[in-house]
Each structure stands twice: as structure tokens, then as C-alpha cells.
Amino acid sequence: MTTVRETLLGSLGVLAAAVAVGVAVGLAPASALGAASSVDATVGTGVLGLGLLAYALHRRRSGDEDRDDPLLADHETADRDAPGERVDAALDRVAADSSGRASTDARAVVRERVRLTAERAYAQGAGADDVDATEAVAAGEWTDDRVAAAFLGDERAPRLPLRERLRGWLHPGRAFERRARRAADAAHRLATEVAQ
Q1: Which end of the chain is more exposed for a tag (fewer CB within 10 A), N or C?
Q2: How many CB atoms are located within 10 Å of the residue 60 CB?
């Protein structure tokens, strides 16, 4: 979720970049350039570029400050958490992080935990050992759900359907959360089939 300040600064940056490109290309009306006709457009564009670069670096540094992800933190109270509570919190963080920078570690941990759950469920259901279960999950053979299989699998697993790939391009955080939940649901279904 973006704040008003981020939205305003982003809008200002886009507007400034558009004006700079217009000045450099010569698309701006002469009346708008009358006062600045003595300023070299190249120098103006360079200054604007440096300003945008400084802003980007500032944003990158400020994004590293909030590493208080409950999934990544070492808690002494982890035994008292409800099952899956920390994974759900990490998934919420991934879905809310539009840039993807702050949630890279959380994504890796969530994927690993869901993969381990799927491997255990497959091993119990198929009566396979750990190595065979790992291979089945990596190849996408553990479920009929193509999205879940592709999410946890490697290059041998089926590809994500086109619709799911488009979701990932448009909304990466929400698509990751959706894929993780589908994989977790597929593992849960497999485990409950075994239990019955």
C-alpha cells in the first residue's frame, strides 16, 4: 500500500521526467521555454536524471529499514504461535509489497515451507522416501493443480498457465500469495486424503 507522500513524489517524478524528455526532444511549446532558453537542455536533463537517481537510492535504502518480518525473526514464542500464523503474516507482507524488494526473503522462506509440506504429504500418501518425494515435488508430479506444481517445481514441472503468468506480471505480490496458497491447499488436500 502506498502512502500519499509516495504517490505525490512518484507523480512529481513522472511529470518531471516527461517535461525533461519534452524539452530534450523539443516538443515543449516555445512560450514555456522562453525563460529557460539560455539553459542547455542536456544539462537540465542530466540534473533531473541525477535527482531521480538520488531519489531511487533513497527509496532503496529506506526499504531496508523495516525487516521486522515475523517469519524471518527468531521468536522464542514460536511454539505458542498458531500453526501457519507466521507463514500467513509473511504472505500478507509479500502481497502488500508492490516493489518486491522488502519481501524477497519472505518469499524464499514461504516457498521453502510450502515445498516441505508438499514433500511430507506426498511421502505419506505415496509411501515414498524423502528423496523420491523431493523429486516428485520438483518435477510437479505430486498434484494435478498446474499452478501449485509450477510454483514448487523446477524446470521439469509444468509451466504456469498464461492467465497465471499475466497475473504475475500485473500484480506480482498478489500472484505469489495466490500461488503459495494454492500449493498449500493442494498439499493439505493430499495430506487429508492420506488421513482418510
Answers
A1: C
A2: 11
Exposure on the CB side of residue 84, measured as CA atoms within 13 A: 8
Residue 61: φ, ψ to 5°? -65, -40
CA distance 124 to 121: 5
**Within a domain: 151:** yes
pLDDT tens for 32-55 read 555 555 556 666 666 777 777 777
The total number of structural domains that make up the chain: 2
Least confident stretch, 89-93, 118-122, 128-132: 89-93
Which tens digit of pLDDT belongs to each residue from 42-91? 666 667 777 777 777 677 666 544 444 444 454 444 444 444 566 677 77
Angle between helices 172-195 and 85-96 (to 10 degrees): 160
- With respect to residue 74, please indicate whether it lies within any of the assigned structural domains: no
Within this chain, do residues 58 and 121 fall inside the same structural domain, yes or no? no
